[in-house]
Design a protein that fits this description.
heterotrimer; A alpha/beta; B alpha+beta; C alpha/beta; A: Rossmann fold; Rossmann fold; 2 domains; 19% strand; globular; B: alpha+beta; binds iron/sulfur cluster
Amino acid sequence: MADIFELRDIEVWDGNMAASHALRQAQVDVVAAYPITPSTPIVENYASFMANGYIDGEFVMAESEHGAMSCCIGASAAGGRVATATSSQGFALMLETLYSASGMRLPIVLNVVNRAIGAPLNVNGDHSDMYMGRDSGWIQIDCYNPQDVYDMNLVAFRVCEDHGIRLPAMVHQDGFMTSHTAQRVKTLSDDVAYDFIGEFKPMNDMLDLDHPVTHGVQTEEDWHFEHKARQHHALMSAVLPKIQEAFDGLKALTGRQYNLVESYTMDDAEIAIVCMGTSVETAQEVSNELRAQGIKAGVVGIRVFRPFPLEQIADALKGCKAIATLDRSSPNGTVGALYNELAGALFNTSTHAVLTNYIYGLGGRDLTKSSIHTIYRDLQANAQAGSPTTPLQQFIGLRGPKLSFF
Amino acid sequence: MLQNGWDTFEIGTILRPFEGSISDASAILPEDRLYSQSNSFSVSVADWRIEKPLFNKDLCIDCQFCWIYCPDMSIISRDKKMVAVDYDHCKGCGICVQVCPTTPKALLMFPEQKDEEEALLEWPKKEKKEKEN
Amino acid sequence: MLEIRWHSRAGQGAVTGAKGLAEVVASTGKDVQAFAFYGSAKRGAAMTAYNRFDDKVILNHEKFMQPDYVLVIDPALVYATDITANEKENTVYIITTHLSTLELIASQPKLMGKKVFTVDCIKISQETIGKAIPNTPMLGALMKISRMYDIEFFTENMFKVLKKLPQKIIDANMIAIERAYNEVK
Ligand code: SF4
Ligand code: SF4
């Protein structure tokens, strides 16, 4: 039996520490990892909790991220509660195995501490790795601060291990801006947190020797499509209600309310910024400043990136006149992914808001309040004109001549 | 199986080798195990063969090479003695014949329609060492 | 909102200092942030760490900051980096140095006319903790200059933050904090 770790009601933790305490409280059986900045402390802390008797588990030091996720897949198929963490190039190396994990319906929790992908080499935060994972069949939940990281990890285990779901989940946080920023985190005691997640219920585990099972079988044209359809169906129909149920449970327990789509002062908003990560909160602060001046500004934060809550987002934005989507990843040849998603969500609806796209914050470039003010000013002009007054895609916070497209 | 739609099979890319539960499978002979429909044991590949391996017990030294090398586990062996070929699962690849070390071989390939009695009669004889006078 | 910028070298404990301060402030019910800019810098490289404190929930995650206090815990950084970057009119500087405040300003004219205080956190930590870890004494100096908390309350809470360390080290840190509190000018 693992020892109880006495926590204060409010701890000052960075995002990494919040994630590792959630893994500890979940009593994860196996963490296989190949540590990479800025996610390193998550698995390092797990190993140290384990060595000090606070976890009854196994830490496997793999030879690469590809090996780490492969070990996780094996351990999960064997019937354990499994988690790990990675970032950036490490995530990229893991990518092949991510598809195996989701296709094999293994409920692994992966903490992705979002970091730029080189070249040029860069350890700081942007959303390139998160975007790279968006077709991999995983649930993707996004966090804006260390409290979110703690709570969303608990939610992730509870959702993904459910037998109606059985899909792996990523919990995303911004590299350094969340992972290395210490803030207040309201904690749950070990037993309350564990009860919230629930006992791990194995399904088709390989260590059930009386019911032998082959995992990861081959199918060709005859079955592949049906398997993928089944997986997509589970993502599309079972996951959002289950996440909502977990959010409701968390609210009953803690009073903290999370939503599939986070709307801030959107009820009567005419202009809105849609973004992810820490930017959601900074934008909210700017929006509050504009509200004080009587400007009807709002912010929509994506909480669940996959499955994409298309209808909820369209609903949150329905009264808007001008919307900016902020993408923290180089779109490399098209509009930002969030712009695309939003355009898809709003097309065929009665919303005819002007939709524009900003690329920002690559490689950890600061998103300043002053940049956000600029974006809201553009939005006001777009709302007034009823059509774009700026190019469709603009780079913001970039040095050199202004860069924009379309 | 073929009539299954996307919503009718078990989730995950899994297959079950046996129907229901089984304990200590290695202690049960293959013919006594309750293999599932999706197990390859439930499917015959006999019609893949153009030639079949035939077994001549008199020449066999029970080295078990054929049992080890057969890619489809179609050599039936009991108590480390070669017993017979499992013609439901033998695909006629001839590997067992290749690895059989005796001279003449205790396994030889014959046309699929060949009668076993007849084949045994035609089997190459052991060469007697002729003494020089 | 109270904002603090630390100037330090990687390894001198600015991040630990910023986090320790944040823990003490958080225990009084305020919202806090403690963060740093690292890059892939190695030990000894100049770095900055930051604190934000507020009665309201802190939503701002921008790295840009116009600090109320600038804490310099390595003496050479006064010359090697721009410690006055993004300053406000009333930004207060507390600087580790063996020089007197007047001598320091004479050696770095940029500080002329600003609110500058000095204390030798390097010497204090060497004499008390036995190593040049100037972060905790700097917090003692900050308490004196900012009057954020009275020193008894602060040391009592800092004691809790450090409670996992060996008793001897905790005691030495407490003495270092009090010395810096008394010696900052
Ligand atoms: S012919 Fe091939 S499949 Fe048949 S028994 Fe010999 S080795 Fe096995
Ligand atoms: S390889 Fe030949 S000799 Fe050896 S067991 Fe098989 S049939 Fe007998």
